Amino acid sequence: MRHVVSAITLLVATLVGSAGLAQPVSASAGRCEYSGRPVDRCVYVNGSGLNVNYIDATITFVTGQYLEIEVWGDGIYYRGHGDQGAPSDQAKKRLNINRNLANHSWVCVTGRWTDGSQIQPPACVEIHS
Fold it and tell me: What is the CATH number of domain 5-127?
């Protein structure tokens, strides 16, 4: 059985200006970018191989800041304030996908400031069979 692999590789480095190391995992994958405050970014993809059941995205920031959470991938895009009930220092979003994503595609999470600028680097995981 093939698995989802967590990574930020040279491809994403080219796209977002940062490189990371590949980490193989069993059936699901997660990745966080901890820059310390102001904003930490985490993505967790639940699935097996190319099939993704759901994506959990979280950004953690200093209480009182106004940020949006942004999630993107193969045919996936969300930008907003996340799900209700999150602590005052977080924005969380669960996206139910329940489909195969393209081989070697990426799912990424970051935050956006009120001026629209994106926090770099995003947290990303690679989907592959």
Answer: 2.60.40
